[in-house]
Amino acid sequence: MIETNPTPVTDVAGAKPERTLAPVRRTSSLRTIALRLFFAAGIYVYVHAAYHVRIWGRLPRRRSSTLVLANHQHDVDGMVAPSVLNLRRPWRLPVYCVASQRWFEPGFLSVRLKTRLRRFTNRWNLAKLFEALGVLSIENQPLSRPDASLAYDILREFGNLPLDRVFTDDALTRYHLRPGAALRDLWTRSNAPIALVQGSLRNLRPHYRQFIRERERAVIEEQASRLVHVLQGGGTMFMTPEGRYSKDGRVGPLRASLDMLLPIAANVYLFGLSYELFTHRRATFLGRVIPFDHRNQTLETVRKALCAARPITFTQLFSDWVCADTQPRACTAVVRIASFTESDLRAAIDARLALLPAPAFIDPELRDHRHHAITRALKNLVRTGIVRFENARFHLTEHRTSVHFPRVPDILRFHAEMFRETVESMNAVEV
Q1: Measuring CA to CA, which residue among 55, 149, 164, 63 is closest to residue 101?
Q2: Domain-located, residue 124
Q3: Is the peptide bond before 23 cis (omega within 30 degrees of 0)?
Q4: Cα 21 vs. chain centroid, distance in angstroms?
Q5: Mean pLDDT of the chain
Q6: Which pLDDT tens digit goes with each residue over 370-401?
Q7: Residue 224: which residues within 8 A CB-CB, separation 6 or more?
Q8: C-alpha neighbours within 13 Å on the C-beta side of residue 221
Q9: Are 384 and 335 found together in one domain?
Q10: Residue 8: what pLDDT?
Q11: Measured between alpha carbons, how far is 56 from 68 in angstroms, rounded to an integer?
Q12: Which of 255, 284, 306 is the last residue of a domain?
């Protein structure tokens, strides 16, 4: 729940953080192991019920400081990967997970649950639970935080101030506010859907905007020190160094914090993630864990290696084919496809697979049972409305969205760009 009494900012981060970091536990107590495995197993069961989950590779049983890097496309990334790494032995070695600072603020669950459940979770704060599970916070939205996130910091430092004293008049026009509304009113049922997902430092009045900026610098420095501390203590850490979901299928720039973590880690593993949306009724999560020689590597090289590690799926190949309205980067010139037969699609998939670089990791279902996978995929494409079957041909429709990627306006373009970047990266680096 939201704290009743404001806590001085020096106890949270401080202008000059001087707290001594707690020792990193390379082996966990029985109570911590039980708690971590309980939640990991629960997440594992839930995700396997909602998705097909297929993962290749694993971390060594005996390891010193280890950094595991993954690309970021979906909420499921941060659920599947840490739970799998924790459940695969040795259980006594904790796997720390780096997550957004939003996880440690009230209402984190509310934005991710169905609307009818939000009224019960708008004020929940699961920070202590996440800390017990080995989740490490990092600020990944320093300039565009939700209003509720900004209000939470100000609430803890100054108390439950009137909203019109903290936020500008323009910012408050989006909310349903009673006269004399205060900071806690941002978490009410009517205001939380806006306050928890939208915001900017510009919504604050100058005095509080300056306070947040100064506080953020101190908090980010302390968070970075904690990440370094975990690796120096021999811990295993999972993170998505892009910081945010990919908006277009391509891996975004890696955060500068990774540059100071790479020299400290004794081992680096890449967790390449892809999603197959069409060959099964349920979406498929595909993950590939491989070692990476990180010595003397730049962030751009690491980014390309992470791209190249992603599995190749039917969804990517199909999307690249139908979205190839310009010269594709991976294959010969192909015009945009408006309608096709199953034979056309099989020939296009075969041609693309034949042109893939040798290091490509192809979904084994597609590689070994290609035509069966294509037949299933066509049925699901029709079912989802992306194509329609008419006059013995399949026709693309204007429908481009997927329930699994609600923030992506064109799921075909998203996976086409992902495929092309993966092939580009495989040609540029060795994985």
Answers
A1: 149
A2: yes
A3: no
A4: 27
A5: 86
A6: 999 999 999 999 999 999 999 999 999 999 99
A7: 138, 257, 260
A8: 13
A9: yes
A10: 45
A11: 14
A12: 306
Tell me whether residue 231 is in a domain: yes
Judgement on whether residues 70 and 141 belong to the same structural domain of the protein? yes
Give the C-alpha distances (Å, rounded to integers) separating 190 from 62, 105, 328. 51, 18, 47
Residue 32 placed within a domain: yes
Residues 76 and 225 in one domain: yes
- Which tokens in the block code for residue 149? 């996130």
Q: What is the domain extent for residue 364?
A: 312-428
pLDDT digits (tens, 9 = 90+) for 151-186: 999 999 999 999 999 999 999 999 999 899 999 999
3-state secondary structure of 69: strand
Helices 411-428 and 314-322 sit at what angle, rounded to 10 degrees?
110
Q: For residues 46 and 79, give the distance between their C-alpha atoms in angstroms, rounded to a whole number.
A: 10
Q: Which residue, chain included where needed, has tokens 């429709």? A: 397
Which of 244, 271, 306 terminates a domain? The answer is 306
Residue 1 in domain? no
As a whole number of angstroms, the distance between CA 306 and CA 299 comes to: 10
| Ramachandran bin of 391, using left for φ above 0, alpha for ψ from -120 to 50, beta for the remaining angles | left
Closest-CA residue to 35 (of 146, 135, 177)? 135
| Residue 206 CA: distances (Å) to CA of 165, 171, 210, 213 | 11, 13, 6, 11
Quick one: tokens of 328? 């594709």
List CB contacts of 335: < 8 A, sequence separation 6 or more: 324, 325
Label residues 131-152 b or e (16+ Cβ within 10 Å = b). eebbbbbbbbbeeebbbbbbbb
Residue 284 parent element (H or E): strand 284-292
Does one domain contain both 268 and 366?
no
